[in-house]
Amino acid sequence: MPDHGGLHPWRFAVVTRDGQERFGDALVSGLISGGDPPEAARIKMRSKASAAPCAIVLIASPEVTSNVPEWEQVASAACTGYAVLLAAAALGYGAVWKSAAVLDTPPVRSLFELKEHERLLGWVNVGTPKEPLARSRNQAKQPDLAGLVTVLGARTEPFRTLAPKQVSID
């Protein structure tokens, strides 16, 4: 893990099928704490808790007395979420990182016993996908690397894709 301080500034909570009702209750209570949402919004929020057989909740738990900046510790904790996604895929599961606007509300914070300095980063739904996840390279929208990458060499310039070398096979 990218954790140069050796702090392990994260923790996890695993929500199984048996815990989904409690998770859904907390999500809906968090939604209600912000006002009086329509029933359809409550139903949609509750459904987030049972979208997969298992949810791995990602909690950033920075060490507040460390000289490692808090943002680095939170970034390190976020990397654990990506590692969970990669591990699930390597094991043949489907996985997706989810979030909701209610993660910092008292009902959700209370359910996961978050301390004042902790932050819930979302959760990874893990299960067996209903449909194959493979997409061809042509279907996936490729990012414009020139807008995302700057090359710093003798001078600064935008990234540009190099034409593939022509290779002849005899």
What does this structure look like?
The chain has helices at 20-32, 39-47, 70-90, 106-111, 145-148; strands at 10-15, 54-60, 94-98, 119-127, 150-152, 156-158. It is an alpha+beta fold and 170 residues long. The protein has a domain at 10-127: NADH Oxidase (3-Layer(aba) Sandwich). It has a 4-stranded antiparallel sheet with strand order 1-2-4-3, covered by helices on one side. A two-stranded antiparallel ribbon has the order 5-6. Strand 5 (150-152) and strand 6 (156-158) form a beta hairpin. The longest helix has 21 residues, at 70-90. The N and C termini lie far apart (46 Å).
Helices, strands, pairings?
Elements: E1 10-15, H1 20-32, H2 39-47, E2 54-60, H3 70-90, E3 94-98, H4 106-111, E4 119-127, H5 145-148, E5 150-152, E6 156-158
Antiparallel strand pairs: 1-2, 2-4, 3-4, 5-6
Instruction: Note the overall shape.
Output: globular
Residues in helices, as a percent range:
25-40%
Broad structural category: alpha+beta
Secondary-structure element sequence? EHHEHEHEHEE
Strand order of the largest sheet: 1-2-4-3
Unreliable spans are none
| CATH architecture assignment name of the domain at 10-127 | 3-Layer(aba) Sandwich
CATH first level of the domain at 10-127: Alpha Beta
Distance between the termini: 46 Å
How can the largest sheet be summarized? 4 strands, antiparallel
